[in-house]
Prior knowledge:
Layout: E1 18-25, H1 28-44, H2 49-70, E2 78-85, E3 89-95, H3 121-129, E4 132-135, E5 141-147
Antiparallel strand pairs: 1-2, 2-3, 3-5, 4-5
Keywords: Kinase, Serine/threonine-protein kinase, Transferase
Organism: Lignipirellula cremea
EC number: 2.7.11.1
Amino acid sequence: MLDIPGLQAKGMDHPQWTTRQNDIPSEAEAAKQVIDEVLAELHSYAWSEQDVFAVHLAIEEAVVNAIKHGNDNNAEKRVRIDYRVSASELHIEIEDEGPGFRPEDVPDPTADENLEKPCGRGLMLMRSFMNTVDFNRLGNRVRLEKTCER
């Protein structure tokens, strides 16, 4: 393949979709590597900095939740991060080995009685920055989708 600077950034000679599957230990460094990989893919498809920032916040929150709350910071437990990215869409699923949770039971962080409590803010962030945030029935897998603003 011809390597001309900026060629991929303009969407030339680039696959329509890039798909990756990652199975990582519940460790911050492993999570950072996958998050950086996703962000690099978004940049390669010429996503706007605003959209890359939004995706970064949302997936970092989801992965940290999987490691911290789902897998209880147990490095023996795995986190699966699968994604597909194109010039206009990102689909990512993050699954932990934990018992799951019920998203509807998470307190609303904007309610007066919860303003000083830390819980619920991450879920609110994900929902505000992504087009879709869905959990499986068990509550240990989240599907995030984002359409690039062009």
